[in-house]
Amino acid sequence: MKTAHSCCCRAAFDALRSGRNGVSSQDCGKISGCYTTARDETRAGGAGNGDLRDQPHRSSLLIVFPDQGDRSCSQFRVDEAAKKVLPAPGIQPVPSQFDTIGVEAALRIKDKQPDTVITVLSLGPDSFRDTIKHCLAMGADEGVHINDPAVNGADHWATAEVLAAAIKKLEPFDLIIAGRQAVDWDMGIVGSTIAEILGIPVVTIAKDIQHNDGRVTVERVLLDGFETVEAPTPAVVTVSNELGEPRYPQLRQIMMAAKKEVKPWTLGDIGISAPEKRITLEALFVPETKVETEFIEGDTPQEKGEKLATRLREAKLI
Amino acid sequence: MASGTLVIGESTEDGKLNPVVPELIGIGSRLGGPVTVALLGSGVEGVAQEAGAFGASKVFVIDDAILKDYQGDSYVPIAERIAKEVNPAVILMGQTMMGRDLAPRLAQRLGTAVAMDCVNFEMQGDKLIAERPCYGGSARARYTINGMPQIATVRAKAQEPAERDDSREAEVVKQPAGVGEGDVRTRIVERRKEKAEGVRLEDAKVVVSGGRGLGGPEGFKPLEEMADVLGGAVGASRAVCDLGWYPVANQVGLTGKVVTPDLYIAVGISGASQHMAGISSVKNIVAINKDPDASIFKSSRWAVVGDWKEIVSGFTEKVRQLKASG
Question: Which residues is B257 bridged to in the sheet?
Fold first, then answer.
């Protein structure tokens, strides 16, 4: 709040604080993104809207970035004319691992506080529904999928603006958990930008998140160690892979997830128009690599090792 | 009219100029126009003239105890204030712990965009073309930023540092922080160092890294021995750090450290793009892997296919002999 830099941010922050419940909006049409949020049904008195103002709520918001990572990253080709990367045949896009780590982080909070409600929010094309369903099968409670052709190919800032606007509709919440980085394209920007738009604190690169009554305690990964940072909620936390492996859904959970709702939203449902792009991808290309690989041969692995040493000595590298 | 480059500088923990700063000044000088450096921290005043020696024409010094540790809530408003005062066409900072956190927030405050982790720059008129590796260095993307200022973070050691010339002097402008304890919503409760022993990964001439192919944490023993004989440092892939086989401080890759040794030996590492991002500037890569189709071989100068334990054993023994005989 103190560092909110515009009236807009301030208003957003106040709105967040006011505890207005916007999650149960019945008028959602189609969605072009998705978020995950969690609320405390018990504390909320059976989730009655009128009770929410006076009841502490817990919610985590996960942002799934609008680009699906390809885990077999070594297998792709670049279409330089279209400035797109095409996965190798047979490779299905999967959720960005950092983002499912975000769901994992939220679930660990829910493990300790079962009354937490987790909502998954994402922005992307039709295929993102499967990503959201995967998050629901992991244990998230509900999904919102913002799917609108007007934001196809949105850059990080347009994405952040749309997500921030959707978050305002979904408030109140305590935590927004964002993947640190989608596999390739995200530059670690969206989570921080959302925090700036909403005027709330952000803690980046978390490996552990503890959430207690109005405070979040985050263990951050530094290059040469760790640091523990506290912030008041609502806050944005971006997570890192050091958090550990995301859980894999059990069959029973997958069946249960089929019944969970994924709300489709359009920009109209959120009440904003498509934000302008701020960055332009001018070119995408594969740099020429001139590496000629020499395979070291030998009768035994031991001998290959010895020959390698000799070759490196000849190249004056050792 | 926005012109010139503003470099958001930083110092090391022991109060020296962070080595990325001369690299940033070098880039700014090549882009054309004056280079201004902003130095934020506690006890940073002493290195202001050093930035001048590397070619900065003006150095803003904001030296305050509140800036001792990087915290977004204290650094972002100061960077925003200086950016508005300087009105540069380009703002550069390192892809450091500070830059990763600060750059996106500053971009939003200034209503502009940032290209992260760039390695190459070019100026066309007043348009900055920023190039960054993606897909683990297998592809490159070139961006332009639609508004002003154009912000980019720069990967360490991607560009040559500016030359030092101690006869050059910068105009030093001291400014108060203008932020107080009450402005900082986050609080650092604790900071722990995970100390890597021996040669620092970032400084090592030789790096030996292990991956999942080692089979377990005990696999790092022979690698440590090998690094020891070579006078190098030991790195690890993200997979094994996630598994807890080796300290995170030794992780090489997109989410770990970027290393630039003369020789990089990857043992049991398949070559995921996440890992390759950490060694994209390394010219001499040796890969040891039992899978002849491992993707890392494509980027390797030398490749050895087979059981890593025996290969490493034969290699280390031979290196010992070679070193003993001079």
Answer: B252
